[in-house]
Amino acid sequence: MQDNDFSGLLLLDKPIGITSFKAVHIVRKTLNAKKCGHCGTLDPTASGLLLVLINKATKLQDRFMKQDKTYSSSFLLGTTTDTLDLSGKIIEQKDFGKIKLDDINKALKNFVGEIEQIPPMFSAIKIDGERLYKLARQGISIERKPRKVKIHNIEIISFLPPVLNLRIECSSGTYIRTLADDLGKILSCGAAVKNLRREKIGNFDVKDAISQDDFRDIDKIKNKTIPLSSL
């Protein structure tokens, strides 16, 4: 029997290795809910905060989709891949030895504020009804129009060559993989995302999210879900 009266927002810490769709499916199946949806896809290779809307709360999806995001990410300098992260095929490798922290600081200034990004081919965006990643897997690349996004702040956490660790505060729709690739082009050495974790969506923090061990537990899900009346 479906529990259609139970509605609200669940903060979920998605682990690496599963899709956002799969994570939502697990919650929906555990609750036997009629409807569940999420507010912003995380790649299977990424971890972190996923907002899961349950039953009647799914009507609020647009409100939460548009909120700002905070990510922590590691970029691997000197490597370019077809997916713009380390899950893909290496296209090119270049020497990164001459890249200094000052060079990185200067390059990153190009990305703070309103910028344009071209969405990666390996993304869930639909063009003419077809998911880009499905075309990319077939070796097909099509023209994508640039999209305006806003990066509020980029903080360098550490630089241990060839790995650059960053914290990025940005608008909805920002592709961190594209940021890495574009930074690599400015530095003339290439770069790809090594690790990606979403820490915040709006005022919601992954520290308050339910863990992988708990999102198959119906009681823990219900205890952690923010009720519809509080949203």
What is the CATH T-level topology of the largest domain? Pseudouridine synthase
Give the domain tally: 2
Give the end-to-end Cα distance, rounded to a whole number of Å: 26 Å
Order of helices and strands: EHEEHEEEHEEEHEEHEEHE
Summarize the structure.
With 231 residues, this protein is α+β, with helices and mostly antiparallel strands. It is built from six helices and 14 strands. The strands form three sheets. Strands 1, 2, 3, 4, 7, 10, 11, 12, 13 and 14 form a ten-stranded mixed sheet that branches. The protein has a two-stranded antiparallel ribbon with strand order 5-6.
Question: What does this 3D model show about the protein?
Answer:
The model has no long low-confidence stretch (mean pLDDT 91). The strands form 3 sheets. Strands 1, 2, 3, 4, 7, 10, 11, 12, 13 and 14 form a 10-stranded mixed beta sheet that branches. A two-stranded antiparallel sheet has the order 5-6. It has 6 helices and 14 strands. A hairpin with an 8-residue loop joins strand 2 and strand 3 (47-54). It folds into 2 domains: 8-65 and 204-230, Pseudouridine synthase; 69-201, Pseudouridine synthase (2-Layer Sandwich). The chain has helices at 20-31, 61-65, 101-108, 132-137, 176-186, 218-224; strands at 8-14, 36-38, 47-54, 69-77, 79-81, 90-93, 113-117, 126-127, 130-131, 147-160, 163-170, 191-201, 204-205, 226-227. The chain is α+β, with helices and mostly antiparallel strands. The protein is globular and about 60 Å long.
